[in-house]
Amino acid sequence: MANTDTSTSEARPAAAASNSRMALLAPALGWLVPGAGHLIQKRWIRGFVLMACVVTMFALGLAMNGKIYKPNTGDLLEMLAFVGDLGAGGLYILGRMLDWGSTAIAYATADYGTKFIVVAGLLNIMCVVDAYHIAIGKKP
Amino acid sequence: MTLALQVSHFTAAVTFAFFASVVFGITQRSAPRDMLRYGAYCFAVFVLGMFAAGWIMWFLHH
């Protein structure tokens, strides 16, 4: 009985450390690769569906010649659009590295595409927060 | 000129509503059945809101 108590009390700090590690790792990974924060916690279906949604929205935005915003201090809406774009994490970094979405918004479809890219980033932020909630045990 | 995907405003709005609703459903509810129901609810609100906004703009214009 005493042995069991000892092992339980030893297991608790280990589990807490593992949880706090996951609470940092899952959101960071989820930001970098959409859906990965769920996948690392073995929420396979949720992870793949979220990944498909965010990546498809981002790709559709680019296919419509949407614009990826760079850091700027100009118009307030452009600064907010940059923050939204940045939410897509790895997709944003990849897009900037490969110079995607650098064309001017010249027609209506390109404007829709720009909104798709911004919203893909904002949706990814929701996924990151959800992955964090799973990691801390607030959500199953 | 770069070739771009050309879609109507309606198609873009419905596609947007679909993906946003899926993410809302998964992230805002805990049980799979609730996720489906909330996702469907969000999609319906998006699409009905789009029609309502369209009609309001039409009445304002005429």
Bulk shape of chain A: elongated
Low-confidence stretches of chain B: none
Helical percentage of chain A? over 70%
Main pleated sheet of chain A: none
Structural class of chain B: mainly alpha
What's the shape of chain B? flat
**Distance separating the two termini of chain B:** 37 Å
Q: Which series of helices and strands of chain B comes N to C? A: HH
**What share of the residues of chain B lie within helices?**
over 70%
Task: Determine Rg of chain A (CA atoms, Å).
Answer: 19 Å
Count of DSSP E strands of chain B? 0
Tally of helical runs of chain A: 6
Descriptive overview:
The complex is a heterodimer of chains A (140) and B (62). With 140 residues, chain A is mostly helical. Chain A has helices spanning 2-32, 36-39, 44-63, 76-86, 90-97, 108-135. In chain A, helix 1 packs antiparallel against helix 6 (108-135) and helix 4 (76-86) packs across helix 6. Chain A is elongated, with a radius of gyration of 19 Å. The model of chain A has no long low-confidence stretch (mean pLDDT 91). In chain B, helix 1 runs antiparallel to helix 2 (32-61). Chain B has helices at 9-28, 32-61. The N and C termini of chain B lie far apart (37 Å). Helices cover 81% and strands 0% of the residues of chain B. With 62 residues, chain B is mainly alpha-helical. The mean pLDDT of chain B is 94. The interface between A and B is medium-sized, with 27 and 17 residues.
Task: Name its key features.
heterodimer; A: 140 residues; mainly alpha; 6 helices; B: 62 residues; 2 helices; flat
Helices, strands, pairings?
The complex is a heterodimer of chains A (140) and B (62).
Chain A: H1 2-32, H2 36-39, H3 44-63, H4 76-86, H5 90-97, H6 108-135
Helix pairs in contact in A: 1-6, 3-6, 4-6
Chain B: H1 9-28, H2 32-61
Helix pairs in contact in B: 1-2
